[in-house]
Amino acid sequence: MTSVETLTVHGLGRVAEPYRDIVPPIHLASTFERAADGSYPGGRVYARDASPAYLEAEEVLRQLEGGAQSLLLASGHAAASAVLQALDAGDRVVAPHAMYWGLRKWLLELAEHGHIQLAFYDNTDLDDMRRQLAAAPTRLLWLETPANPTWEVADIEAASAMAREHGAMTLVDSTVPTPVLCQPLKLGADVVLHSATKYLNGHSDVVAGVLVTREDSPLWQRIRMMRALGGAVLGPFEAWLLLRGMRTLHLRVRAASASALRIATELEAHPAVAQVLYPGLASDPGHAIAARQMNGGFGGMLSIRVKGGEAAAREVAARVQVFKRATSLGSVESLIEHRASVEGPGTRCPDDLLRISVGIEPVDDLLADLRQALAA
Questions:
Q1: Would the N or C end of the chain have less CB density within 10 A of its end CB?
Q2: Is 307 a catalytic residue?
Q3: Considering the entire predicted model, what is its pTM?
Q4: Known catalytic residue: 173?
């Protein structure tokens, strides 16, 4: 089997004719010629659902996750929406309390208007998850691990087995660990979702989403149809940029993970920090599970809770000089944000929490920046 490292660097290993291009060409065509007899010799009709621009990135991601098929979409939200739209009206979804705020809001919106039934469970409590699954027939169990922005860890293998017992499929948002550190399909999940905007692209210049399925199924075919008919497709140049970004995926993810662990370890003892949330710390409640299902690191995301509450947290964010104050995550540059004020009314995020996305700068520079910002 090709290693993760070789697969991300070389992709499918193809070179294009007639020039033997090392870098894959960009396929910009939106439509394809039909032969005189009505057939399509190139096997393509229209780019919205069959652009050759997607093929290599989709195949690399399929192989990275060990799945049967994969789909590129216009964003992580588009990927989630394609799954939810493929459900039958009124299907029940069980989701974690702690998860990416934008998707949580979308689930609540769909439930409010009767498109789905919705129940939430405590991220780290398998008994609570079981209760919610058993409370009513459930179509979809949603996992996000580690969960944004407090980085709780869910046991993918145990949760997937539990979902199967109750006739539900399991979707894992694996945006943060990426397939470099965790492959949920091999742990029993049915579908993996990535906001490819984040680590997969890794350069803050693409918005994209990815779905990978463990096996072809009627529901997967409906998801594929939702992409085609809903029009939430990626542009050819963005697909090419995504493939370009993945060439360094393993280097970036492992570098960020190593730096995040060092930062978390130092800040855990800092007098201005009330708590560090990072599954790589031995003191973290999810560490044992994370160590079992993540290989080679614990990800580049952590959060700190600052002593002194919201005002102190905002002051720390205002004082950084190397970190950029910006939303999103998973890129080469390090970011920091006061997450509760980004999420706004109704947020479950503590108001003293700063979310940190560790990039690939020298970790000593990042630590020096955080030290001076916390010194106040």
A1: N
A2: no
A3: 0.95
A4: yes
